[in-house]
Amino acid sequence: MDITRRSFLKSAAAGAAGIAALGVTGLNINAKAEPAAAAHPVYQTVQQMLSKTLNPQKCDIFTKEGAGDIGASAIFSPWQFGRYTIENRIVKSAAGSAYLPTETKENIIEQYTNWAKGGVKLIWIEDFINLHRDFPMNYKYYSREDAYLSELTEAIHAQGSICGYQLMLMNASFSGFTAGAPGSFDCAHADHMTLEELKNLQDNFIDAALYLKEQGVDAIEINAAGNNIGQAFLSRSRNARTDEYGPQTIENRARFLTEIIAGIKNVCGEDFPVQILINGIEENDSEIGQNGQLTTVEENCEIAKMLE
To answer: Looking at the DSSP assignment, which residues form a beta bridge with residue 146?
Structure first.
């Protein structure tokens, strides 16, 4: 029987709802529903332990007194991001909103400016411009010629924040892959492109990074997670190449990205920050448990070391 993540979660939710119904009534149809109980003490203890381990705080946010002393939280302490000292740890991610093509320039600049005014000191701009000259993506409506990026970065800088830009690539066509309709977010596998196309794509990433720096962007994030083209090289499930960019070794799998990083540093400066977004955990959501070709956590740690 084929099982997918959606069907599994749907069945699990239905089962949980049934069990919950039995638990509330205790099989007594005349019983009154009890108010929602507080979290189990054991759960609370585990939750607090994990929170304090993963995000240590100088105050106890689980008490009324501690919540009132939120100013002592580590979130307001400075940290070093490459050559930049960031005043706090509040960061706006580059997660796509899908609204940029439909909003006016003034509205977008106002929204990003408001984030900066609100205290977000590191702002990642989502990728909304067709920056890869030879591999356009059909769901991006802005080009280098009509984008207002320099105005956007100036507005962010005016509020004392720095800004990065996320470069990503999905749903672009190659010799062995034809892009789908806009919004499908399909992506080629690593072996769908010729070596010449691969090298050209690397050059496109590097050229885009230089353009972004010239527009006032302070750092670059390359999205090599999810269904993006960078992930196609990192994961054996999407890489059947037999050359030096194939899945035979960790070094080979990381090579596509490490060469892009080196190229960006060469044209933008060694101290220009380049951040890489990769999957921490990969799971097969089409065939649960069939993860033999997916990247393990241990492999991702080795890949991260090479990218660094």
So the answer is: none
Place of tokens 């009132």: 68
Q: Which region holds residue 87: left if phi is over 0, alpha if psi is between -120 and 50, else beta? A: alpha
CA distances from 2 to 10, 13, 285, 286 (A): 14, 18, 11, 9
**Token pair recorded at residue 17:** 């709802």
Is residue 7 over pLDDT 70?
A: no
Q: Is 26 helix (H, G, I), strand (E, B) or coil?
A: coil
Backbone angles phi, psi at 261, to 5 degrees: -60, -45
List the beta bridge partners of residue 223: 277
Alpha-carbon distance of 295 to 211, in angstroms, equals 32
- Is residue 276 within 8 Å of residue 219, measured between CB atoms? no
Spatial separation of the C-alpha atoms in residues 107 and 99, rounded to whole Å: 11
The band of 270, judged by pLDDT with boundaries at 50, 70 and 90, is very high
CA dist 153 to 123, 159, 163, 196, 204, Å? 10, 10, 7, 34, 22
Q: In terms of Cα–Cα distance, which of 203, 139, 131 is closest to 167?
A: 131
The helix (run of H) or strand (run of E) holding residue 80 is strand 79-81
Q: Average pLDDT for residues 227-252, to the nearest whole number?
A: 94
